[in-house]
Amino acid sequence: MPSEAPDKALHREMGLSDLEYEAIKNELRREPTLTELGMFAVLWSEHCSYKSSKPVLKFFSDYRQAVEGAGLENAGIVDIGDGIGITFKVESHNHPSAVEPYEGAATGVGGIIRDILTMGARPIACLNSLRFGDIASGAEDRRLFARVVQGIGGYGNCIGVPTVAGEVNFHPRYSGNPLVNAMCIGQLSLDNIASAAAKGPGNSVVYLGSSTGLDGIHGATFASEVLGDDSEAKRPNVQIGDPFAGKLLIEATLEALATGAIVAIQDMGAAGLTCSTCEMSSKGNVGMEIELDKVPLRASGMSAYEIMLSESQERMLAVVELDREHEVIAIFQKWGLPAAVIGRVIPEPVVIVKHHGKVEANIPAKFITDGCPTIDLDAAEPANVRDAKLFNPQSLPQPHNFDQCLTSLIESLDIASKRWVYEQYDSSVQTRTSIGPGQGDAAVLALRETAKGIAAKIDCNARHVYADPYVGGQLAIIEAARNVACTGAKPVAATDCLNYGNPNDPCVYYQFRESVRGLADASEALEIPVISGNVSFYNETEHGEVLPTPTVGVVGVIEDAAKRVGMGFPKGMGYIYMAYGFSPAPRQQGLGASEYARVVHGVEDGAPESPDLATEKALLKFLETVVSKEFITCAHDISEGGFAVALAEMAIAGEAGCYALVDADEHFQRHILGPVLDHVLSHGIPPSESVQRALIDAETGANPWLFTQRMDARLFGEMPGRVLFGVSNDAVRHAIMEQVWAIADELHLALYCVGTYDYTNRKVQVISPSRVLLEQNIEELRKLYEEAIPKIMERGA
To answer: Known catalytic residue: 464?
Structure first.
């Protein structure tokens, strides 16, 4: 019989409702013990149980089930051929990072790395998606920003896994409640996938890794409540990481898995020993009996409650074949890590916890993992979503100085270079990184023992989601996929981290439901399954909730990693084309919810343009094809800041300036043909059919600016489904563009020659038939772009 029951009101302090407490008593047919109550509290927290989000996450159930398979809940796996599997996942560590930013961010990295490791994979890359308040005016937000970045670098650099890509955004709604989403990618042999499902009654339960301390107790329940005035007092809920122990754990675990002695393995992440014992038992339809006296401890006098709920880092739990325990333990001891047999697998599907000869817990495994009552919440469309649909772009005054608009956008914090961030990360350790931070729309890794590579990007425009949750959810996965495709990779799968405020607010739950529905619909249309993910609710302070932020990470495969392309114009000469689809007239000319409206006009209103899913899918295929055939020299999608910012970013990242024309009237021929042909003929190249094709498209109305009457909309409007790419003069000389046209025609895409790039030109120039619209020196733009964040961070916290 388990030890004595706790105070009957204690369950509320632990975050359990009266309904949940009654369900526990009914199942156990008695009052739960203190240890049992703590175990239920953490596994039935929102962070672990998904009790509020399960009804919505059913949108993804078919995809996840099809790819993950039974027993593989730590992360999803993609077969990329040659016997190689790629596994990846993203997780949030928001609340810990708000309270203790360095350790919160560091342990977020460590936890996601271990999730990948327990699949039997070597972690080969990390990415992150970060959100902070207004660092320009808030010293505390600058402190959180600085310490989170230091924590990611401090852990990732020491553990030896490169941080290759990410995103950073700023908005007052994240003030005091930063979002820290960590993603990890691993490579494994498909013949050696590790399972999390315990099996084999009589097999040993083996504790692996660092000893257990008092840090992180009730971390999962802490992550399932709103941050408030008492948050500072909850520092003990934040785990403390040791990246050097983490590195040893990687090597020891991979070596131990290679012996074949390990039947199942799982990280002791959120909820620690409680999570690993209960979830592994539940997955395998078996039980476990463990002796806490055998658990390696680093604090004396720890109770059963504390041992079961501790979230000390760098720990694993494994089921090992009977009589082979010594093989695994010897390997961990060789690497200087604790390892001990703490129990056994039993046929009864219950988890029995003993301490000092007493039974402290006896819980049905399936009930504690799957029995939490689901909560049906109300949803109501927020007023801002209704208002955004009514936004009239004509309310924005037309600027007189487009140069000033461009410079303001280039140094706005969401667009400006994140070099200050990524230079604190080691992006090249393990020597697989082929395209690193700042060099392309996505990171590219060249894999070993194969010519293949993978591309990866993590993305979300939360302001788009706030303005139109359904469309914003679609755009989150679309842009991440488009970024991956711009390198030449075929997007094959995605992972998501869904960050929102308090789901009990009907408006927040509406944001969640509709954005996930949009994400799911786009995932299905693009045939990019979401194979793993995480939900993070209660991201709000007394000042309000964060912007709805469904972060999406996408991974793609390049058949020949040597052929990948970056975003910068190369050192040479060539043409700049836009690839796009025949979409209906935009509702708000791409100005609704745009960075241009926010930065230049101080207006956060309007809704993003809806994507055409057929066009987006065609663009992915087009980019994969033309890069694989080596027809293009660079590619970059048009997103925040629109066409002009995309051009500037390609020039800043590359080695050539550009000359482009924005027009949609009868003057096109005179003002584009002359400069283009002058450039072509001056280099001894005959006129190409591709130039004539561009003229025909302009005259027949197949023009990307046909429906945008405002010049600021043509320059800075954010229209989905558009990509800029470069084609060298040699490609024109050898009639390669005609093949590019044929590929586009087959996919029902339009191509439009917007101008030229030239390494002798050190400017970004954009003209219309009547005047010069933009003319900026590249070095001056680069200076603004690179120095925006460092100048602010020099102020200190």
So the answer is: no
